[in-house]
């Protein structure tokens, strides 16, 4: 074995020994919890949100920078809409043309109704004359036929109006669809958050669903911990919790917002009581949004710490106050 390899192994063993010593020291100095409380290691987390484009096109502007704090509704980027705007002008022209056809159909109905009224009046006069012998039966039959034709013309004109009104609806729907695509070209922040990555730059062509930016959603800041089955059945949604970060003296108040209905890290079927006791369930404790907003510039994800949860008391059990090291809360 070469000398350099021996030195590398010695350094590796020394590093492992230091890490092991630190872990043992931390475990020994971990404050003991009173009955009615549970704890678990975790880290501050927040959901990452990919801001994507609903339409394909060329990226026109990317406004937000990496690390920038954005508010809900802030414009993050825009997609070029020159082609869509041309399509919108054409759609508006088609709407105007369809509406003029509706007006023409309405005029045709009025004209057909006027002809029907005239034919009915002439038929009425012809019947009186026929009764008195001043008009022939043939001329009366002719007027009856004219009334029927005029009545059919009215119905045809009304049907044409309905058809042209549907054409207007179709043209308006097409116009609305294009306008919606133009509106979708403006990509806005779905919530308050911090820009983690810029995934596209101006000039790049992206497809529908193409990612432009990734945000850390700061409207939901939480820590996850894992508790055994013997404790998780006593964890209620809304229960009080505390988060103690490695870099912060004061504890952060929190509440339990989620308890997994399924166990983690173990097989689905376990046979013995000792194995069943090893079942671990994921629990999420959420930091109040008001506290997050108050310290929004200091909020960082990935910071490690310990989460403490107050358990539901057993029959006849009294849960004491929070341990002294968790009573000083971040304001």
TrEMBL record:
<feature type="domain" description="Multidrug resistance protein MdtA-like alpha-helical hairpin">
    <location>
        <begin position="102"/>
        <end position="163"/>
    </location>
</feature>
<dbReference type="InterPro" id="IPR058624">
    <property type="entry name" value="MdtA-like_HH"/>
</dbReference>
<dbReference type="InterPro" id="IPR058625">
    <property type="entry name" value="MdtA-like_BSH"/>
</dbReference>
<dbReference type="Pfam" id="PF25876">
    <property type="entry name" value="HH_MFP_RND"/>
</dbReference>
<keyword id="KW-0175">Coiled coil</keyword>
<dbReference type="GO" id="GO:0005886">
    <property type="term" value="C:plasma membrane"/>
</dbReference>
<feature type="coiled-coil region">
    <location>
        <begin position="79"/>
        <end position="129"/>
    </location>
</feature>
<feature type="domain" description="Multidrug resistance protein MdtA-like barrel-sandwich hybrid">
    <location>
        <begin position="48"/>
        <end position="211"/>
    </location>
</feature>
<protein>
    <submittedName>
        <fullName>HlyD family efflux transporter periplasmic adaptor subunit</fullName>
    </submittedName>
</protein>
<comment type="similarity">
    <text>Belongs to the membrane fusion protein (MFP) (TC 8.A.1) family.</text>
</comment>
<dbReference type="Pfam" id="PF25917">
    <property type="entry name" value="BSH_RND"/>
</dbReference>
């Amino acid at each position: 074995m070469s000398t350099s390899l021996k030195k590398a192994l010695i350094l590796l063993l020394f590093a492992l020994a230091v890490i092991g010593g630190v872990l043992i020291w931390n475990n020994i100095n971990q404050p003991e919890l009173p009955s009615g409380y549970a704890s678990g290691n975790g880290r501050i987390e927040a959901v990452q949100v990919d801001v994507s484009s609903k339409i394909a096109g060329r990226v026109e502007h990317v406004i937000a920078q990496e690390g920038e704090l954005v508010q809900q509704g802030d414009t993050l980027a825009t997609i070029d809409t020159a082609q869509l705007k041309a399509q919108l002008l054409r759609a508006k022209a088609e709407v105007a043309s369809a509406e003029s056809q509706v007006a023409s159909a309405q005029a045709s109905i009025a004209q057909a109704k006027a002809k029907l009224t005239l034919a009915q009046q002439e038929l009425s006069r012809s019947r009186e004359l026929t009764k008195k012998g001043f008009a022939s039966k043939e001329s009366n039959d002719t007027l009856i036929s004219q009334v029927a034709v005029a009545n059919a013309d009215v119905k045809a004109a009304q049907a044409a109006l309905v058809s042209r009104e549907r054409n207007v609806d179709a043209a308006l729907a097409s116009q609305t669809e294009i306008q919606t695509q133009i509106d979708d070209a403006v990509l806005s922040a779905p919530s308050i958050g911090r820009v983690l990555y810029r995934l596209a730059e101006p000039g790049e062509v992206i497809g529908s669903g193409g990612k432009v930016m990734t945000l850390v959603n700061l409207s939901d800041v939480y820590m996850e911990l894992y508790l055994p089955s013997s404790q998780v059945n006593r964890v209620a949604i809304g229960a009080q919790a505390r988060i103690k970060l490695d870099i912060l003296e004061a504890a952060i108040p929190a509440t339990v917002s989620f308890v997994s209905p399924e166990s983690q890290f173990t097989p689905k079927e376990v046979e013995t009581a000792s194995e069943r006791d090893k079942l671990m369930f994921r629990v999420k404790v959420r930091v109040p949004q008001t506290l997050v907003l108050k310290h929004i510039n200091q909020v960082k994800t990935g910071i490690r710490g310990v989460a403490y949860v107050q358990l539901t008391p057993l029959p006849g059990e009294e849960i004491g106050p929070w341990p002294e090291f968790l009573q000083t809360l971040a304001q």
